[in-house]
Amino acid sequence: MKKEILFSLFSLCAIACSGPRSDGVDTTAETDSVQMTVLRLEQLKSKTVTVPLSSFIENCELLQLETTDEAFFKPWYTTVTENYIGVRDIDRMPYKLFSRSGKFICTVGSIGQGPGEYTNSPYDDIIDEKNGLVYLAPFVGDNILVYNMEGKFIKGIGTSYTLNKPKIFLSGNVLTVVHLPIAFSSDKVVAVQFDVNTGAVLNELPPTAYFMAESFDDEIFNTRNVSETFDFLSTKSDTLYHFDVNNNLIRPVFTMRSNTSEKLFKQYFQLNKDIILTGTSFLGTDTKTGQLSYYKEPRLVAADMKNKTASYIGVVNDFYGGIPVPLNVTTVRDGYFVQNIQPEALMEVIEKRLEESNCTEKDRQVLNNTLSTLQEGANNVVFIGKLKSEVSRKLF
Q1: What are phi and psi of 293, to 5 degrees?
Q2: What is the pLDDT of residues 343-364, one digit of tens each?
Q3: How far is the CA of 255 from the CAs of 171, 234, 237, 306, 331, in angstroms?
Q4: In sequence order, which residues have a C-beta less than 8 Å from that of residue 47 and are 6 or more positions away?
Q5: 309-317 and 292-304 strand pairing
Q6: Are residues 303 and 278 in contact, defined by beta-carbon separation less than 8 angstroms?
Q7: How many whole angstroms from its chain centre is CA 119?
Q8: Which of 103, 158, 248, 250 has the greatest CB tally within 10 Å of its CB?
Q9: Which pLDDT belongs to residue 277?
Q10: Quick one: residue 32, left, alpha or beta (phi over 0 = left, psi -120 to 50 = alpha)?
Q11: Residue 319: CB partners within 8 Å, gap ≥ 6?
Q12: How many whole angstroms separate alpha carbon 120 and alpha carbon 29?
């Protein structure tokens, strides 16, 4: 069965919005019976509001991953579940699986071109604790690869066509895949759904023009932070979408508009059901070389859908002495905040924080205690906190 994608590109560009309020509140538009939030960047106040990490997470722990040769990695994305930690390596290395106590369990699959192997680090992953399975989505291929918790290959769930940079979502026995259709190829779908038990294709969704990428340079990002919600961003279309897995529909939910003539890079991701975050930066001129080559002034925008407010924000980890926190698509995933960092890098962050004039005695005690637990040359340490499902109060 095939269904059309809701919301045409023409409608996306032609929507009529209610007037923005002076506090930079997001505005809502409705077209083709679909509601979408549009945030006007110019309406944001320039001041950045500092928000404690405890506003977004219920707790925070810092754990040491096991230090053995086979357990080392260069972290890219880290996936956390109740009992496991999975790490995708940025340096074309296989997937690593740890327990929640930090003990190394196994390498899942391997780099190669044989059955159950992938030619590069996986582009997405799901740890299915209930059924004892790990799903890995290779950068390019015609299969989503399935392994057991010992890292052994079980099966591939595949198509007759190539999946480019696929992102995956598991709901019951249905595996939904959104990928990057390339305009010059024979790609005929932007999404496909499988029965995980039989591997049968249940639904396919043909792409519209605003999903067709001109090259492999575009990206797809997702977080899966909201229960039963498949959120994703395709950089080709500049919009945050939800995939309605029950009805095989893609719905636009959020975008940002700006009147600037500068090139604005935006990366949307959903923190919980109320908060949508946008990493923003402008393409600027390198002061040393004079070349237009680097995104400058990265800033984080938070849109609170419940309280109808929006602001630039900076986040500090108030559980660990007020050190700065990076919130992006690599650190808030699957309902968790997770910061995977080398101990040496964390030492530098802590020492810098200790030098700041607003560092309280309480903060200093926490920071020095944390410093005493870190060892140079050891494997990475990981901050982990369970994300709150909604905001409990107005933050900005």
Answers
A1: -145, -5
A2: 999 999 999 999 999 999 999 9
A3: 26, 12, 10, 17, 21
A4: 312
A5: antiparallel
A6: yes
A7: 22
A8: 250
A9: 97
A10: left
A11: 53, 54, 59, 60, 385
A12: 41
